[in-house]
Design a protein that fits this description.
single chain, 377 residues, three-stranded antiparallel sheet, 68% helix
């Protein structure tokens, strides 16, 4: 008599959150981009064409990726790392395209994407592999320094070649969070956090003198963050328009499709600032609901990591959790003027066919790890 094969667990809770966020993002993008599409005399659906194609391809990719053996990702880790470096170098060739003074996009035929997005996935794979190989050495400072040094080339290349500070922060943040989870030496991170906090305090306290001495664009953004009303027609314009949108929304919002700020007042409303449109149309209630859904997603990642069958699988889930958490926190913090303005999209909701496709592929990896869990969680 043949023994019935045990069916693997599949995290349908996580799958539901993914589908909900993507569908919600599509609704908000339809609302946000409707005015611009009307001004350009095209249908809103046509303006969303690339994003919809990215979603469809992303879900197909997510399905197949979720069935890829976890061991394969371990074998592909260094290849992904090298491919990321190669793609960043290709930005120096005619394949790289400039936009807003920075070369961040790579065009290969009809396909266009940002190599920084691939670098985020590569960081997760490489860090998971390295950490799983030296679990007992993770309490040593030298081991942690070596792991950080592995990622530094990617971080520096992203920052220098693409001038994309936010993506560089995300890549570095993913590595730091994965190391933090894997090591029992929390005292090192407390000391590191104290040093960083002290530096930030000194920069903010002396920002006027720093801007006057260096004339730095990024330090100028810090000054605009501290005094946005003084830069209402410059670096502080987008921030002020975002705050106006949040203020107009109130508790329950002006209603879906009724945003005023999206009518050419709020720059990049469909990208970096879509959370402001959510606040204006759905109010504080809608914004809190979105945040809760992201928190629920992070909780599922934490559960999957906790019940993963091995350290490598667990670190994959932790890396994906870190990526989503850092990107969501940075986006909402920028929109609410909690931190200086830096271009960062809201996962699954902001416009971007390639971005949502890469994110869905990451979700496939997380779902693949959940399939290795023996008992329902």
């Amino acid at each position: 008599m043949k023994q019935r094969r045990e069916r693997g667990y599949y995290d349908y809770s996580l799958l539901f959150i993914i589908v909900f966020l993507v569908a919600f993002g599509l609704v908000m993008l339809y609302s946000t981009m409707s005015y611009e599409a009307q001004m350009n005399h095209i249908s809103t659906t046509q303006s969303l064409k690339n994003h919809i194609i990215g979603i469809v391809l992303g879900f197909v990719l997510m399905y197949f990726v979720s069935f890829v053996p976890i061991a394969w990702w371990k074998g592909l880790a260094w290849y992904a790392y090298l491919v990321s470096i190669l793609l960043l170098l290709l930005l120096l060739t005619p394949l790289g395209r400039s936009s807003h003074g920075a070369t961040r996009w790579l065009y290969i035929g009809s396909l266009s994407f940002q190599p920084a997005e691939i670098a985020k996935v590569a960081t997760i794979l490489v860090m998971a592999k390295l950490i799983s190989q030296v679990p007992r050495s993770m309490r040593k400072i030298f081991t942690m320094i070596k792991l950080v040094c592995v990622i530094l080339p990617l971080v520096l290349m992203i920052y220098i070649m693409t001038k994309n500070l936010s993506s560089a922060i995300i890549v570095f943040g993913i590595a730091v969070v994965m190391i933090f989870v894997a090591t029992p030496r929390y005292d090192i991170f407390i000391a590191f956090g104290g040093v960083v906090g002290a530096l930030v305090f000194l920069i903010i306290k002396n920002i006027d003198a720093i801007v006057a001495a260096s004339d730095s664009f990024r330090f100028g953004r810090v000054l605009a963050w501290l005094h946005p009303e003084d830069f209402a027609q410059g670096k502080g314009f987008q921030t002020l328009q975002s705050l106006y949108a949040i203020g107009r929304g109130g508790i329950f919002g002006k209603g879906l499709g009724n945003s005023i700020q999206k009518l050419s007042f709020l720059p990049e409303a469909q990208n970096d600032m879509i959370f402001a449109v959510i606040c204006e149309e759905l109010g504080l209630f809608g914004a809190v609901c979105v945040i809760i859904m992201f928190l629920f997603m992070l909780w599922r990642f934490a559960i999957i990591a906790n019940y993963a069958p091995d350290l490598f699988s667990s670190m994959l889930a932790v890396g994906i959790m870190a990526h989503i958490a850092i990107q969501v926190i940075l986006n909402i913090a920028v929109v609410t003027n909690t931190i200086p303005n830096t271009g960062i999209t809201l996962p699954f909701i902001s416009y971007g066919g390639t971005s949502v496709m890469v994110l869905l592929a990451e979700m496939g990896i997380a779902l693949g790890v959940s399939r290795k869990v023996k008992n329902e969680i």
